[in-house]
Amino acid sequence: MSGDSQEKNDTFREKLDLPFPLVGDPEGTILRAYGVRWPLIGLAKRVTYVVGQDRTILRAFHSEKNMTAHATQACEFVAERTG
To answer: Whole-model pTM?
Structure first.
């Protein structure tokens, strides 16, 4: 999810050959619903969610500076839950 256009997200996904879809939200509707917009500047915060099979958010990781931490923490959380 990002505040970029869907076209820009699709291009980014193809460039990295990601096996999952990316969602563009240029109007910020979803970003506001999740409370992940910086209030004064309107840009999206960097948050990674681990979503359960029942579609509930199990964990959220916030970091503006350490992108590696998002993947590391999410993978560790999933590994702990799956044994």
So the answer is: 0.70
